[in-house]
Amino acid sequence: MALIVQKFGGTSVGDAERIRAVAEHVARTRAAGDDVVVVVSAMGKFTDDLLRLADDVSPTRPPRELDMLLTAGERISMALVSMALGACGVESASFTGSQAGIITNTEHTRAKILEMRPDRIREALAAGLVPVVAGFQGVSTERDITTLGRGGTDVTAVALAAALKADVCEIYTDVTGVFSADPRVVTKARRLAKVSFDEMLEIAATGGRVLMLRSVELARRHSVPLHVRSSFTWEPGTWIVEEDPTMEEAVVSAVTDDTSEAKITVGGVPDRPGIAAKLFRRLADEGINVDMIVQNTSLNGMTDISFTVAKTDLAAATAACEEVKVEIGAAQVTSDDDIGRVSIVGAGMKSNPGVTALMFETLSENGINIEMISTSSIRISCVLRADRVEAAVRHLHTAFGLDAA
Ligand code: ASP
Ligand code: MG
Question: Which of 194-198, 349-353, 378-382, 397-401 has the lowest mean pLDDT?
Fold first, then answer.
């Protein structure tokens, strides 16, 4: 008998029919002899609707009240799923994040989990119930209700799976798994049967939209096997697991794309120690996440620094750079939001030479110009014009032999 955490995303509980289908699946899992903890997201696009309502009544978004509002979405789902389970003859009880013992820091709208005390969930399991937990939320050390950031139900599910030492955390969604590329871009994309945590981290960080990045980090830290699968077909999906040393790794497992970032260039920067530190300290203080960073070789003691930020942070980041510009004696700040990034990810890259060359050749053969490059040991990313990204993904997918037959 296994303990399985089953997380259902917004589309999986989008309406009454979907909720009944979820309940039937949980009932089947139980009938097979396994214990289940259910974690749910808000129905469909309910969180977005609530955000719009908030905007309609207030020009500011007071974070404490916003969290109180948004957590209502998951609360609706958990009660409805629990009722639907009852209708299937499965005894269950719903719990808010707070009741489930998810203790967070006080950073409203993007709280971090500090501690898990899922006593009530354990008790419910021991009593033979299926606990249904509202995702995306917790209670802070100041006893206020908090949320874990958009997509945070994945984090709830993995954190519970880790705390309860579950055998697997199943993430149910509207796609059948993790693909070798976005199937909307590449019709010949393949579902991956197995991906390592490291690869999944890179895929999630560079545009793979299936799992929230933080949940993958958490799963890796606690070695919680993840199984991403469809709540529409219920077929087996993609396993995300510890790297298996006996397996021959694919050189490239996936090609990802991301057009959510913009590029900022600070030009004519004096090439002295402390300049980059000043610039990026300032951005960090503003709470801006910086992604790719490239600094040119200096010419006559001057250099350029380019980096990418989320498009949503572009205005704030540009303003901060303009201020630092004066302080560090830089010449100009320019920005460009018409860029996109394409990345190739694969654990086998570490031991196979020529991957970078093939990537660059493929782009150049198709007349695609590379504007920035960054690498990790298992990823290569290139920044391109936004309108070339989809073509780049398709060509790379073919060049690395990923196209389905
Ligand atoms: N309902 C929240 C959101 O839309 C959390 C989640 O779905 O994971 O971001
Ligand atoms: Mg969601």
Answer: 349-353
